[in-house]
Amino acid sequence: MKTLTAGVLAAVMLAGCGSSSSSAAATSAAAETSAAAADADLSGTVSTDGSTSMEKVIGALSEAFQEKYPNVTVTYNPTGSGSGITAVTEGNCDIGLASRNLKDEEKNGLTSTTVAIDGIAMIVNTANEVSDLSLDQIAKIYTGEITNWKDVGGADQEIVVIGREAGSGTRDGFESITGTSDKCQMDQELTSTGAVIQAVGANEAAIGYASLAAVDDTIKTLTVEGAAPSEETVLDGTYKIQRNFNMITNDSKELSPAAQAFLDFATSLEAASLIEAAGAVPVSK
Question: Which of 6, 12, 128, 178 is the most buried (most CB within 10 A)?
């Protein structure tokens, strides 16, 4: 009789364990279903406006976010950092994009969230013999003190200086770091990162600067004081020409659930690999 009672007790205990395991599995499945339902329920449009240098980063984030939330559409208007800050200030977009930090006069009523760090690559034509420049040499080229490539180890050829337009975050970051604000003398001032890369790629005498996230094999990147622009050198600070990629929001305008979710996603660990693949350095790692 005692043996029978022990067997019955054992069976009850096993049944209890099975019940507990099943309950945990059911709870987990319910949570996953609930999360999936929440993903499906989120809907609307998230409008972003600003930095052309952030195109690849925003493209990667938007694509992944829209896969996660299929009823949300993320739009991107590549107008430049200054225009993006103006757009979010005036309430014409949900999130402004700036490849520079806010200036003191812009900070009132705006919040800046850094999502990545980007190197500003110094670029030349692939036929150019020069491979390295110092910050001082770069500054002197852009202020007109050095005008011939032979003075920095290159061919006897006049330098064609190319940069970005006033209001560009890339230009602001470049000039702040090189100490050339309001001193640059450029042959061409172009309105997008892609245009700078294209112009340098088409002119053997040209020099320009562009977001590291945007460079390709049509141009040659220079080392700056021996440091090549890369994720590692940007992160450890040895590559000195770098700036932040920021998302700007208006404190007086509450973000929609979709826009808030996109901002949260952009700063999450989940987004880090996407930002890296786009050529920038995530701050969420």
Answer: 178
